[in-house]
Amino acid sequence: MNDCSSCIVRNRAICSSLTPDELLILGKMGRRQKVKAGHTLLWEGDDAPVVANVLEGVLKLVVAASDGREQIVGIVFPSDFIGRPFGKESPYSVTAMTDAEVCIFNRNAFDDFASEHPDLQQKLLRRTLDELDRARHWMMLLGRKSATEKVASFLLEMSDRLSGQGCNADGSLNGFELPFGRQQIADILGLTIETTSRQLTRMKSDGLLSLPSRREIVIRNRAAMEEMAG
Amino acid sequence: MNDCSSCIVRNRAICSSLTPDELLILGKMGRRQKVKAGHTLLWEGDDAPVVANVLEGVLKLVVAASDGREQIVGIVFPSDFIGRPFGKESPYSVTAMTDAEVCIFNRNAFDDFASEHPDLQQKLLRRTLDELDRARHWMMLLGRKSATEKVASFLLEMSDRLSGQGCNADGSLNGFELPFGRQQIADILGLTIETTSRQLTRMKSDGLLSLPSRREIVIRNRAAMEEMAG
DNA sequence: CGGTCATTTGATAAACATCAATATAAGTGG
DNA sequence: CCACTTATATTGATGTTTATCAAATGACCG
């Protein structure tokens, strides 16, 4: 059984809506599980018997075409929720991009628990609404933005979302380390790896950013970058 | 005050979770409003003081870039819900594509009501989860599919979603009338109007469909269309 | 019937993908 | 710790797709 009171994401995950008593019940239902980088937790189209909270690491949500083309439709960080409550099949695959740890629940048991705990359900609703907003803005990026705009938008969003992780909690971070490589960036932006790479190289030579190592990004001119994001 | 018991979308809208007593209270909060085709109900980025149920007509959710490019990120049909509960700004514009009628609520009043009615909140959660799934599959289309695949996918989805409206409730309809023109199709698919038109013309000459009038579509070879959708 | 708007069609250009070849970094076993 | 191997990323040359610009056709409306 889990000791939720010492959970790292205790106050950020949806569990934060629960009283100590309720947490005890939920703790009995969940179990911690490590996921190796590259391992797929849920497969698109398969029955998905579980939902989970992310404790550590970064995972991707992927929709694939029959011929193998992939589009990443979501990136999941610690304290985020994964899985599809009130649904049977997983609408996308969930794969770890880094070594990760999740707190897993049986979906039916979770659904029942949620139905009896309106506060938890409201937290889930708020999160889902936020995700939907994010997804819809991403649709604008995918459908209407140029490669340059895509990459600029991506870097700015990453500098925001990775801020929670690091130390500088002052809004957004200019220097950060991406938890994944170029191909994944391409799969997020609906581009090829070559186009993605070329955009980054161009931005580097234009002095907008520097690339200290493969996965590190330092935004040197945020104003110009925001201009570029369209 | 509204008489919800006679509402056309009574059993399909989120209100269907409510008892007659509750419905009476909600009925007092809402008011019916007609919206002319082309009129914008909510503006992206503005404070959105209302949420609503769609009674009649079709509306679009639009995200725009600073230079005017538009991406349609959602299409809303009768019995669907519009607006952003638990949030202040509207993350996108909501514009009527046909003459429409909605049942409008003050957002704060609705949020409070929802917080006290878990069943309503669960209905809203389920709907939001469905919308999110749909949005994410649309991301795959926008990011990874070719123009041909986009148009084919679009026609197939429309034939499904418009079925509820018509008489043939046998799954999906091969002949249907789109509630909007070519430019809107382009804005849904992340294409230009010219490319969209060319794809349709090609499909027509390939015998996949016929175009009896501007807005009517008849799918003549569904199997081939599904093949094309990728 | 003429005018307006939406759509189609055509010619050309730009953006991005694809194919192919390095280059650079990250592991691995000696 | 260093050569060797492998994976990842960059760069270059070329091709395809889709956008853009421009014009013509067709539908709808008074």
Key words describing this protein structure:
Arc Repressor Mutant, subunit A; DNA-binding (chains A, B); DNA-binding transcription factor activity (chains A, B); 7 helices; 230 residues; four-stranded antiparallel beta sheet; homodimer; Jelly Rolls; WH_DNA-bd_sf (chains A, B); transcription (chains A, B); DNA-binding
Write a structural description.
The structure is a homodimer of 230-residue chains. Chain A has helices at residues 20-29, 107-115, 118-144, 147-161, 182-189, 193-205, 222-228; strands at 31-35, 40-42, 50-56, 59-64, 70-76, 81-82, 93-96, 100-106, 175-177, 209-210, 216-219. Chain A is of the alpha+beta class. Chain A folds into two domains: 4-125, Jelly Rolls (Sandwich), CATH 2.60.120.10; 140-228, Winged helix-like DNA-binding domain superfamily/Winged helix DNA-binding domain (Arc Repressor Mutant, subunit A, Orthogonal Bundle). In chain A, the strands form three sheets. In chain A, strands 1-8-3-6 form a four-stranded antiparallel β-sheet. A four-stranded antiparallel β-sheet of chain A has the order 2-7-4-5. A three-stranded antiparallel β-sheet of chain A has the order 9-11-10. Chain A is elongated and about 55 Å long. The model of chain A has no long low-confidence stretch (mean pLDDT 94). The A-B interface holds A 61, 63-67, 69-71, 73-74, 84-87, 91-92, 115, 118, 121-122, 124-126, 128-129, 131-133, 135-140, 142-145, 189-190, 230 and B 61, 63-67, 69-71, 73-74, 84-87, 91-92, 115, 118, 121-122, 124-126, 128-129, 131-133, 135-140, 142-145, 189-190, 230. The structure holds a DNA duplex (30 and 30 nucleotides).
